[in-house]
Amino acid sequence: MDYTVLIPARAASTRLPDKPLADIAGKPMVVRVAERASQSGAGRIHVATDDARVLTAVQAHGYSALMTRADHATGTDRLSEAVQQLRLPDDAVVVNVQGDEPLIEPEFIDAVAACLATSPWADIATCACPIANAETLFNPNAVKVVCAQDGRALYFSRAPIPWARDEWGSHAPPSGLASLPTGFPALHHIGIYAYRVSFLRRFPQLPQGALEKFESLEQLRAMEYGHAIAVHRAAQAPAAGVDTPADLERVRAWYAANRL
């Protein structure tokens, strides 16, 4: 199938300033992300940035980049401007690959694009993998999703959903819980998205809803306004991205070990 990868890369970062330009085995992080995306089936790859230094670095390594405004509230807003600049048709499919994921597996990129292509009822597709332990289920930083039988997302939350009432009753489970009930259908949301361009054009006009505000989950805005999200179920989560200096050192060690 034909689709485009867009890599939003904002230079400002509280915990890791100039993160897209962080060196990983001789190349900026955002270039490493573009390299991984180039191993997928994407027909085109573009970096969307608000920093001229990032633009120059990406282009110096032979990849396409475009400048976007610096005042976008979300990465999806940045993608919306990018598809306008690129003049992509409404029925085109765009996969958002974050600029801080230099270990992203190309297979995940292809899978989320294929999920949207085979779900004509959806405007967005994303990924999830099974939750195997209670620590992840009860961690508010690990977003959970529940799905219908056809793969349609019903809700995303930082709360532990679904709830095993027969196992845990109506109150929080005892501290030290290590295992989950057999067959428990909990899914950990993986933050990679495919969009139809028609949705990206509409998104900036959608006011923030109460669900997004309280959960701090951008995808809930789409659901509140009736946009369906298809979920690809992966066997396991992809390699983690870079949020902290420790993450950066982990990724550098991986590239050094693999001599890339």
Entry keywords:
globular; 260 residues; 11 strands; two-stranded antiparallel ribbon; alpha/beta; single chain
Account of the protein in words:
- The model has no long low-confidence stretch (mean pLDDT 91).
- With 260 residues, this protein is an alpha/beta fold.
- The strands form 2 sheets. Strands 1, 4, 5, 6, 7, 8, 9, 10 and 11 form a 9-stranded mixed β-sheet that branches. Strands 2-3 form a two-stranded antiparallel ribbon.
- The chain has helices at residues 29-38, 52-60, 75-86, 106-117, 134-137, 165-168, 197-202, 210-215, 219-224, 245-258, and strands at residues 4-9, 23-24, 27-28, 44-49, 64-67, 93-96, 124-130, 144-147, 153-157, 187-196, 229-233.
- The longest helix has 14 residues, at 245-258.
- 32% of the residues lie in helices and 21% in strands.
- It contains 10 helices and 11 strands.
- Helix 2 (52-60) links the parallel strand 4 (44-49) and strand 5 (64-67).
Topology record:
Layout: E1 4-9, E2 23-24, E3 27-28, H1 29-38, E4 44-49, H2 52-60, E5 64-67, H3 75-86, E6 93-96, H4 106-117, E7 124-130, H5 134-137, E8 144-147, E9 153-157, H6 165-168, E10 187-196, H7 197-202, H8 210-215, H9 219-224, E11 229-233, H10 245-258
Parallel strand pairs: 1-4, 1-6, 4-5, 7-11
Antiparallel strand pairs: 2-3, 6-10, 7-10, 8-9, 8-10
